[in-house]
Amino acid sequence: MFIALVCISFQPVSASDSLNQTNVSVVSDLNQTVGKNIIGLVDTNRLEIGNKPVFDIIWSPDGSHMLINVVVNVYPKGKPDLYGCVGALYAANTDGSGIKRIAWAEFISSRGGITINPPLWSQSGDYFAYVEWVKGRMYKIKSVNLYVMSKDLNLIQKVELDPKVTGLESDLANFKWSPIENKFAALVPGEIVIYDLDEKNELNFSISGDDAEITDMEWSPDGKKIVFLKNGQDIIALDIENGEFNQIYSAKYVGMYGEKWSTDSKRLIFYEIKTSEKVDDVSYDIYVADEDLEKPVKITTFTSGSSRVIQWYPDSEKILVKKCSDDSCALYSLSITGKMKKLIKKDKIIDGMVAPNGYISATSLNPNSTTPPYIRTYDLFLLNESDRLTIENVPYYTWEGADVLFATDYKLSVLNTSTHDTWDIPLPSKNFDRLSLDPSGRFVAVDNIIFEIHEQGTHTQISAKNYTNSTASETAIIKKDMDEHSKIDTTEDATANTSELPGFPAIIALMGVLIVFVCIHMEK
């Protein structure tokens, strides 16, 4: 695919001599380790395998560990119309060595079973948590259990969550890590419980009302408050230090978007739904609650359910919003005083985010995605007050500071939006479903392959024939029944290569996981 970099301000986009050129080499093929292990968990006497294993890599915040969530679709023999899956969770070093299985489960829609959520790391990387859903026939939820483990794989806490307050399995409503400390909040029947893993204590806050429905629970960025929606009518903030519940707003129909708190933790944004006797006459009044003001203030109204609040700006004075009509969508900068400024408009679906350096990144689906080879790609627009860049045919991208990393044919590219310098990391595959870079910038996962990134000239550039050169060990098993995580078998295959890989001076400190547009894994 042709890649176009267009700078509206006519500043050139060029490679800088000061940027290190890089290549990659294979250090692990997860298909040869966890892939074989999960296939071995399928009872082939009664189940057929419907697809190859799908791998989700979840790096620890410091890039020292990774968790691997793997799912393979299955169905009862002779009944391909019935959905089923076998899933497993593994821990490993970032080069794919030292693999240990933490848990596994099986679910068949006709009879029930257990599914496992992709895990979430605490902000420190000292702990991670995952959820097991116990389900009956046709997905009926029976119980939801939260397991919190240390990075050295000791079980720290098991919590039975409120099964009535679950939300999506991809975005749990009843469990949230604190953004600044080793604490987490969990919704159990009738209570919000704050668990402090460092102090080894917990705080319990009772919620009034029988069978109250709690949704949209979210910590404030400073870790001092938690907001939630009660019964779809009351927006309530919990002051953790004082132990007080404060009602922010109440109406017949209210709600909150995914983005709630301003970055300084002083403001909340939410909406009230208004209806009339006319068919399809629905509006969404957008409010901001400010801790310095007595009452929330309405700042604008959306007339379409496709319109939404996307994200607060770093200055906590503006919000990125999307407004849609019947034939187009546009991104706007909305101030807390209600002033609206259009940023970009397209006649097709558009989305966006606010980058840490103040740029707005917007994505619009490329219509060529509907033609062979049917790879879903997007046009990426990078905007600020004086600059506008367009990058075509991008399936994935992420931000770190002034750099944006994006994937295209056979390579990853890094663009510095301040200097417009770029450099590339070649990849051996054109078509891939999932891609993520570890926070240290040393390793990259492309589907089931873990690559190490090297400076140009230190290693031979990768080719497809190198796929067999995996240094990962065989899978070691954590012996565990559904209520026991403490028995760990750390015995590894005698042929495992456990030596340290060569050192690598950091090229970039790209944090977090790439936004994957094509295949976002959501267990059903």
TrEMBL record:
Keywords carried by this UniProt record: Membrane, Transmembrane, Transmembrane helix
Pfam families: PD40
Source domain of life: Archaea
Transmembrane segments: 501-520
Family: Belongs to the TolB family.
Protein name in UniProt: Uncharacterized protein
Organism of derivation: Methanosarcina acetivorans (strain ATCC 35395 / DSM 2834 / JCM 12185 / C2A)
Source species taxonomy: Archaea, Methanobacteriati, Methanobacteriota, Stenosarchaea group, Methanomicrobia
